[in-house]
Each structure stands twice: as C-alpha cells, then as structure tokens.
UniProtKB/TrEMBL annotation:
Pfam families: HTH_PafC, WCX, WYL. Residues 153-218 form the WYL domain. It comes from Cryobacterium zhongshanensis. InterPro entries: CBASS_pafABC_assoc_protein (IPR051534), PafC-like (IPR028349), PafC_HTH (IPR043839), WCX_dom (IPR057727), WYL_dom (IPR026881). It comes from the Bacteria. This is WYL domain-containing protein. Residues 11-133 form the PafC HTH domain. Residues 245-317 form the WCX domain.
Amino acid sequence: MSPRVPLGAPDKLTFLLSLVPYLIDHDGISVTDVAAHFGVTPERVRDAVTLIAVSGVPGDTSQYLPGDLFDIEWGQFESDDTIVLTHLVAIEDSPRFSAREAAALIAGLQYLSSLPENADRDAIASLMAKLTRSATAAPSQLAVSASASGTAISVIQSALQTGVQVRFDYLNARGGQEERYVDPLRVESVDRDWYLRGWCHLRGAVRTFRLDRMSTLTATDRPVTSRTEDLILPDALFQGSESDLDVVVELAAGALPLLGDYLSGRPVQQLAGDRVRATLRVSHYHALKRLVAGLSGVVTVVEPAAAREIVRAWADAGAARYPEPAASAAAAGPGE
C-alpha cells in the first residue's frame, strides 16, 4: 500500500468543512467507515473529531462556554471508536427552507424524476429526503404527474444515443400534416410544452417542433448527417428569418414578457394608460391562433387585416362548436 500524501492547510480545512455535514447525516458512524469514505487514515479522522469538539462560536460574553462548542459522545468515541455528535453550533442556526419552499423544490424534483432521461433516480430521491429533513416544518405532500410527452422523449433520446434520424408526421399551425425526417439535436421545455430542435431534411435547416404536434414518431435506421457540435444552436428557442411576417398587437405593458421570443425587438409604442403597442414576428399568420387563444383578453391583433381575419375566423369556428341557449329559455321568467 502506497503511503498517503500529507494534507496541506487548504486540504485540511476542506476536509473539516466536509466532515461535519457528513457526520450529521451519518449519526453513530465508525471511525474506520469515515476514513474509508474520505480516503484518509483513521488517525486523521480521530484528530479531526477531537478538533471539532473544541471548536465553536463565542457567545454573548465573547467567551467559549460549554454551550458554545461542538460536543460528541466521548464514551462511544473512546471505547467503540464511534462518532456521535451530541451538540451542534451555528449549523442549526443557518438559514433553512420554509415548508412551502421545500415543497416547491421537491415538486420540481419529482417532475424531473418522471422524465426518461433522468436515470439516476436514487440521487434525486436522496436530495428530496435531505430537503424534507432540512425544512423548518414538514413540507406539504404533493403528487406530480409524469410528462405526457415521456414516450416521445424516450424515442428521441434513443435516436440521439444511436445517431439516427427520427421520422414523424407533424401538424403545422395551418392544420396540415407534413412528413418530417429530422436529425435530433436537443430536447427542451418551455413551461409545460416540450420541443425538439433538430436539422429538418425537408426544410434544409434547423427547426423547432412541438412534441405534442407529432404523431407516428419513430427512430429510423438512417444515420444523422448533422450533429450538435457541427451546428451553432442559438440560446433562444425560436429564431426569426427573413421571410417572417410583422404583426402589430396591443396589450398591457405588464404582459409583454408573455410574448417571449415573438417580440421583434422593435421599440414598443406607449399608448394611453398602461397599454402598449408592439410588433411581433411570425412565420405565418396562422401561428397567431394559439398565441392569442393562450392570452385571451390580453392581446389584441391590430394589423394587418389578414392576420385579424385569420384569428377572428378561427375564434368564430371554435365558438360555433358550442350551441347557443334557446331564446325561449333566456326569455323565460323564474316561475315558468
């Protein structure tokens, strides 16, 4: 066995800073187990524990009284070579997550653990357990459903690993179906929606596809012709092109962030009150339908007239699917 290299002062400090949290999480652990975990000798562990036991934070009197120092169960330490912390200093006074904050973080971790690419579920479960223990109160019990796009993500991840194209029928904003062969590059999410970014062989360029608009998605046996390292993927999920169309809309100034990548970057015109007029760039006017429906009552399409007509016709078609109440029922009195 090769001799161990002596630790320098920075390494000793790092070891001590790592040792205390480890002992808190592993109450009643043997010196040999601690030494094996950190790759040091048992003698170094015993020296560190002895140093911890005389460390602390001075109290109101600026003196180190017994309650201001760490303490251990000396009987077990000396007779059984076992470390049990009996008093902690400052560690318990550190800022902790509230029950609501811990619940929110745990919910996020539950969501991540439901995704196919997160294979190391044990690490996520361990982190959720630590958040539960470290919260100021017991976090609320939450249940997070798995992503509806999980199957599609699995297919895409498999294609990424094997270096093959994916094939799917894509429902575009105009309501038409197109067969696409795509070199998958990256899967990303925005709010609840998942997107595939990849090289589209039909368009001959990088395109972004919503997973919930795909059907009959399969991994093919065609090798990809482009890879992530060969292309520069912009940070923004949606990119404009020279063929994009301008659309002027009105909305409250506070709602501008909801438009995200649709904004053209042109100056926003201030109107009366808190209303503003902004210019959007879309690939075609049909792309406005989902945007306006998702922001119903918030965004008003001003111009061009063709864009207004497409949105109006789409809204009328949706309203027509709901039967109007009979006129006689509306006119009837409460006693009839």
